[in-house]
Amino acid sequence: MDEKFMLKRSGTYSPAKGKFRGLGKATRCLAGAILFACTCLLALSKYHYNWNNSEIGSSAPHTIQRFQKCSIDNFLSTGLPFLNSAAPLPVDEFVQRRNNLAKALVADHVDTFIVEPGYTFQYYANISQKDWEVWEPEERPFLMVVRPSTNSKTGEIEASTSFLAPSFEVERARLLNMPFEGSLDFLPWEEHWNPYETLRRSWETEFLIGCDLTVKSVAPKVMVDEEMRDFIQRGLSENGFDVVGLGGEVESVKQRKTQREIEIVRAVNTGTVVAVRAMRECMYPGLTENEVMNVLDNTLRVAGMEPFFDIVLFDEDASNPHGGTDGSKILEAETFVLIDVGAHLYGYSSDICRTFFPPFFPKPTTSSEVQALSPMVQEKLKVWDIVLEAQTQSMHALVSNNTAASVDIAARKVITDAGYGSTFTHRVGHGIGIKAHESPYLNKGNFNVTLRAGMTFTSEPGIYLVDKFGVRHEDILLVKEDGEPEVLTGLRATGPWDP
Question: How many angstroms from the chain centroid is the CA of residue 33?
Answer without folding.
Answer: 49
